[in-house]
Fold this sequence. Notes:
By secondary structure, this protein is an alpha/beta fold. It is built from 21 helices and 17 strands.
Amino acid sequence: MMVAQSEERGLESLVQWARILGAAAAATAASAALSGDAAEPTRNYQLQLGIGFAAPYNLEEPFLNAAKARPADWSFETGSRQRMNGQAAVKAGFLDPKTYLPTSKASEAKFGATAVFYSGAEQYPSYYADDYVLDWKGEAQGLMQRWDSKAIVDRQKNSITYSLKPAQAKGGAMRFTGFGDGFSDIRLYRKKYASLLNRGEIWNPEFIKYVRRYDILRTMDLQYTNNFQVRRFDQIAKMSDPWGQRAAITWPEPPFFSIPYEVLFNLGVKADTAIWLTLPPQIGSPISAADPSLRGDKKTSKVDSTKLRAAISAKAGEILASPEWDIFAKAFVDRYIASGYPQSRPLYVEVGNEIWNFANGFWISSHYALAIAEGVADKKSVGSGYGVLVARYMMALDKEFAARKIKPNIVYVIASHTANPWRTQQALEGFAFYLKKNGVDPKTRFPRTAVAVTNYYAHFSEMSLSMFGSKDPKVFAPLWIAEIEKDPDGFARRVSSMITDGPKNVKATGPYMIARFKEHQVLAEQAGSRFLGGYEGGSHFTVPKELSTSKTFRDWWMAYHWSEQGADVCRRINNDLIKAFPGIVISNYKSIGTLAPDTPWNDGHYAKPTPMMEMWDEFARPDRLQ
């Protein structure tokens, strides 16, 4: 039954894909290709950009239809200060359990809300001053709450048009009332792009114009990879679904997650770049991490890692033998071929994200990999389990590509932790172990793998330890403030010098990265793999709350970070890495967005380039900057 459902869903998606994007292959043939497909300016490195989340607040605005970035869930106001959502809304009959769209019964609620779109638009009012259309199919009445009612210039049965002036540009909350039959196909878009959207285009031209200057686009956040709980291909969103559903510890689970792979392949075709995508680590698992049986005995809203590991390790052999691997591979390759993505162009595939990290955003995937190792591997480590999962994906995809008689340029990324080269060693050993166990010589497969680590810089607590002798924010925060008050420019120079020049033993400084990169490179080459470079880079100068609440510090930090001086730090880090590792991939983790103490990786906005954005352009494709 599971196989039949997966195949049916895959066929449905492919029919939609062919109808919506049938011209993609022809467009590819007519365009000048990138990343090894055509002549390009000689550069001894590749530049990667991480795309932001498929989220309503993402100011990259990647999709023509902004409503595609909404999550699956809705919130219904059922009384004064009373809201119903998720499974409660499904049980009440307000949400269809398969589509998560409101039913006619939802008309009993005062309204149904999805998300707030364009949060932060008020920072770039001229850019977001435009005509916007909200439309839908079926019975309902829609509006963008928080958008000035005076901005409404047209209202039809199934659409409403707003003309926002700069003073009116701000985040708007999408709401609907009066639900009836056939409610579906919600769209929110700039009116000027209506013709593009109506002919099946996906991507905002402004977004494409910007990202195509990079060689590689990494879609980890766009896919909501962290703690990926997809266990079957048919759990991945279809073209008709919204694409903003992240992992959720709710039960029963939402009916779909993430974004269709055909959309990611199309991004590579449309932007004419290589794509670096992620694969869900839990394929084939018979149990979801969200299952109530895996919750804590006392903290029932939290997953118990011991229970999770016990459940997965006991089934590890069964998981790796599951037919879902072949189902996934077939559906994945169907979409890859249909997209027109050039088979000679590298396609980087990475299992999960940071499967070595046990922090909140990653720990389910890391515990899952550890459980796989505990169940089947000779060495019981998270790295070993991660290597097993990479090898299992390679076996499944190789089998499917062989059946199609094609040999595409797939690069299996072994993504590791800069600070701990031994994690790379574990992953390489786990990869080799699983291939040997299945009668495959690892020496024949390692050349199609590549080791990558993070190239981000600036570690606040480590820098504080070096400068002030303490990692405790309560101790070092007043010392930072005192230095800023005494000599803000001089202290900025001191901070910059530490990041670019070290000492080498201070984490996330330039010399530290070069030393660690060399260790990863040696391990990769000894195994028969290669060292690829970075997969997340740029500033990670995140600020502890003890300093982010200080106006003195915030004013100094905000002025420094996007300044010429702040940009020069990143420029120096990039150049030093390129000099030390010719051919390296240099990564910019994020670009378009607002600057804040918890998002130092953002560089600026299309409407207001900063010295940091201009610095990254120095490393971009010069033929793509206009």
